[in-house]
From TrEMBL:
Residues 2-81 form the GST N-terminal domain. InterPro entries: Glutathione-S-Trfase_C_sf, Glutathione_S-Trfase_N, Thioredoxin-like_sf. Keywords: Transferase. One of its GO terms (molecular function) is transferase activity. It comes from Pseudomonas marincola. This is Glutathione S-transferase. CDD domains: GST_C_family, GST_N_family. It holds the Pfam family GST_N_3.
Length: 311
C-alpha cells in the first residue's frame, strides 16, 4: 500500500475541498506544498502538464481533478462514503454544478478590487502582478468565461437562498441528509469567500448556512505529515502503477487502448497531457507517460470535463 500524497497549497479552495474529504474519512496523508503560480516543475514532472491544484498521488498513480480524487478516496476507504448509493447521481451532479457555476461566482466575488486589496495587502506588488498574469493564462483557451462582478453579485442571493432552503427542508444535518461530496464542494466555495471581510458577509448573512458550514469544516484535515516534491517524485519513480480497473474499456469516439493521445480539461487550465491511453471507463481516463525524473506514471482524469485528442 502506498501513502496518499497531496500536492497543494494552503489558500487553494479546491485543495481545501480535498483536505476536508481526507478529514471526513480520517485518513493519514503526506503534504507536498506547490507554488500557487507557475512554474511548478515538480508537479509537472508527475502530471505531464496538468497544472491545477490539487493533485493526489498514490505511488506511481497521479489523480487530477477533485471529482476523481473523491472517487479515489472512496476506493481507499469505503466508509464513510462520499457517494451514498441512494443519492449518488444527485450528489455527484450537484458537486459538478457547484465546482463550475458556484465556484465561478466565488472567483468573481473574491477577485473584485476591494477584496483583492485586502487579500493581497501583505504581499509584494510584483507577486500580485505575477499572480494576475498566471490566472489570466490559466483561464485562456477553455470554455470557462469570467463572470462579471456585477452579475455574480446579482445572482448570489438566489444561490444562497436555495442553499438555505435546502438545509431547512433536509431532515439530516447535511445537504442530502448524510455527508457527501456535495457538502465538501459547496463548503470549499464558501470557505474561499470567508477569507476576507469584504466577501465573508455574503456567507455570514445566512445563519443556517453558517451552522452547516461550521459542521463541514469541523471534519478537519485528517493526519498530515510533510513531504518534499523531490521525495514525492522519488516515490513515483520507485513504484509500480496500480492494476487497471476491471471495467471494460469503452470509448464512444473510437479511441483504442495503446493509442497515443492527449487529454486536457475543457474549462480552464487546458494544458494537454500526452501519453498512451490505457483505459477509458464511465468515470475515468488513464494515460501512461514517461518522465525523466518520475519514470513511468499513470495519470488519471475524470471523463466529465476532459477531452481526448489524437497525439
Amino acid at each position: 500500500m502506498h501513502e496518499l500524497i497531496l500536492h497543494h497549497y494552503p489558500n487553494s479552495p479546491f485543495a481545501e475541498k480535498t483536505r476536508l474529504m481526507l478529514g471526513f474519512k480520517q485518513l493519514s496523508w503526506r503534504s507536498v506544498m506547490i507554488p500557487p503560480i507557475m512554474p511548478k516543475d515538480d508537479l509537472l514532472a508527475l502530471t505531464g502538464g496538468y497544472r491545477k491544484t490539487p493533485v493526489l498521488q498514490v505511488g506511481a498513480d497521479i489523480y487530477c481533478d477533485t471529482a476523481l480524487i473523491a472517487r479515489r478516496l472512496d476506493a481507499e476507504k469505503a466508509t464513510p462514503t462520499l457517494h451514498p448509493a441512494e443519492a449518488e447521481f444527485a450528489v455527484a451532479s450537484f458537486a459538478q454544478w457547484v465546482d463550475t457555476v458556484v465556484f465561478q461566482h466565488a472567483v468573481s466575488l473574491v477577485f473584485q478590487p476591494e477584496s483583492i486589496a485586502v487579500r493581497f495587502a501583505q504581499v509584494p506588488p510584483e507577486f500580485l502582478q505575477a499572480f494576475v498574469k498566471d490566472r489570466t493564462a490559466l483561464f485562456t483557451g477553455g470554455s470557462a468565461q469570467r463572470l462579471s462582478v456585477e452579475q455574480a453579485k446579482h445572482q448570489w442571493p438566489t444561490i444562497m437562498q436555495r442553499l438555505q432552503a435546502q438545509l431547512a427542508a433536509q431532515s439530516g444535518d447535511y445537504l442530502f441528509g448524510e455527508p457527501s461530496v456535495a457538502d465538501f464542494s459547496m463548503a470549499h466555495a464558501l470557505w474561499f469567500l470567508r477569507a476576507t471581510p469584504v466577501t465573508s458577509p455574503l456567507v455570514d448573512a445566512y445563519p443556517d448556512v453558517v451552522a452547516w458550514l461550521d459542521r463541514v469544516l469541523g471534519f478537519g484535515h485528517g493526519a498530515m505529515s510533510e513531504m518534499s516534491g523531490e521525495e514525492a517524485i522519488g516515490v513515483a519513480r520507485e513504484a509500480n502503477a496500480a492494476a487497471l480497473p476491471e471495467e471494460s474499456f469503452s470509448d464512444p469516439n473510437g479511441f483504442k487502448a495503446g493509442q497515443q493521445v492527449t487529454i486536457a480539461a475543457t474549462d480552464y487550465g487546458v494544458d494537454p497531457v500526452a501519453g498512451e491511453l490505457l483505459f477509458s471507463g464511465s468515470e475515468e481516463l488513464i494515460l501512461r507517460r514517461e518522465d525523466p525524473r518520475a519514470g513511468s506514471v499513470n495519470v488519471h482524469f475524470p471523463r466529465f470535463g476532459f477531452q481526448i485528442k489524437p497525439a
